Amino acid sequence: MAAGRIVILGAGVSGLTTALLLSQDPSKEITVVAKHMPGDYDIEYCSPWAGASFFPVGKPNTAHAEWERASWSVLKQLAEEHPEAGICFQPTLVFSREKDANSATGRWFAELVQKDPWYKELVDNFEDIPTEKLGPGIKNGSRFTSVCINTAVYLPWLLGQCCKNGVVFKRDTFKHVAEAGYAHHSGEKADAVVNCTGLSSKTLGGVQDDTLYPIRGQVVVVRNDPLAMYSVSGCDDGEDEVAYMMARAAGGGTILGGSYQKNNWDPLPDSNLAVRIMTRAIELCPTLVKKGQGVEGLDIIRHGVGLRPFRDDGPRVEKERVNGLSVVHNYGHAGFGYQASYGCAAKTVTLVNDVLQEKAKGKL
């Protein structure tokens, strides 16, 4: 632990989780500065559009898998002890199709739908679905208990926990990451800036990460309840489309998805894709609607589009010096920002402490 003034850029799930963990040390003075805050809905702000769930996708024995492992323990505890956070347990079924092995969605879900995944000892009630109970074309399937996160509840909850710990929130925008060093609420220059700007790191001066690009996800939010979460490795409507659904806690509705469209910046819902999403959901879970009903049996709340911040080399969680300022990055989490949030934030905290300790030694 080390004292210091810290500015966090971004108030999505990565920025808020990092602020929460850092604020557990009262010697740190933290300012979160962002263009968008919980309660906003904007195509630039990815976190509100997420499902969100714990569907592990990291390869075993990698940092990604360890981030998910570390995050699961916290998400599980929140579901058990803090219902006000908007996280609930859900029975979960995942299915793998042989034909999806080389598709975009098949590669995305490769670890989730493995026959014997690394996470089977992590989550509760894991079991394989017997072959005779699998549908046509399904190679293997499993069921377990996971969590679903109502982002409309959880993001404000994170903000509230940060405020309780003394974190100050401000709205602002910057063209260069070094400008954030002068945004601390004390009026003094920050000792470190934490960059959690997600897809905006592609254009933010001093970062300008060309390996970062959007993966467009489209969803339909309905009032119908499937009573479980579902995920399939792909579908027959296109290799960048997929079938999944999850019912959010606290009346948050059911998310029907989706798509995995690389480098697609379109912020507007595609009505044809929406129909395909709803049709796939009913095929996957016929009890979602009354018997004999099709898409017309779905009670639609809204349509949504989010741009997942995908990075070729995976999330960037590292420190560097930019124009003489210490910057710690935590961005590029694609579609797993929530389920890796605590693991990535804990690593970020370690890096920030390294920066502050180095600064303290330099003053001796």
Automatic annotation (TrEMBL):
Top-level taxon of origin: Eukaryota
Which keywords appear in this protein's UniProt record, sorted alphabetically?
A: FAD, Flavoprotein, Oxidoreductase, Peroxisome, Signal
The keyword Flavoprotein is assigned to this record: yes
What is the native source organism of this protein?
Penicillium canescens
Q: Which residues constitute the signal peptide according to the record?
A: 1-19
Localization annotation: Peroxisome matrix
Cellular component GO terms, alphabetically?
peroxisomal matrix
Q: Does the keyword Transmembrane helix apply?
A: no
Give the binding site residues for D-dopa.
Answer: G335
Output one GO MF annotation: D-amino-acid oxidase activity
**What are its E.C. numbers?**
1.4.3.3
Provide the GO biological process annotations.
Answer: D-amino acid catabolic process
* Residue ranges of domain FAD dependent oxidoreductase in the record: 5-347
Cofactor or coenzyme needed? FAD
Q: Which family does it belong to?
A: Belongs to the DAMOX/DASOX family.
Catalytic activity, per the record? a D-alpha-amino acid + O2 + H2O = a 2-oxocarboxylate + H2O2 + NH4(+)
How is this protein named in the record? D-amino-acid oxidase
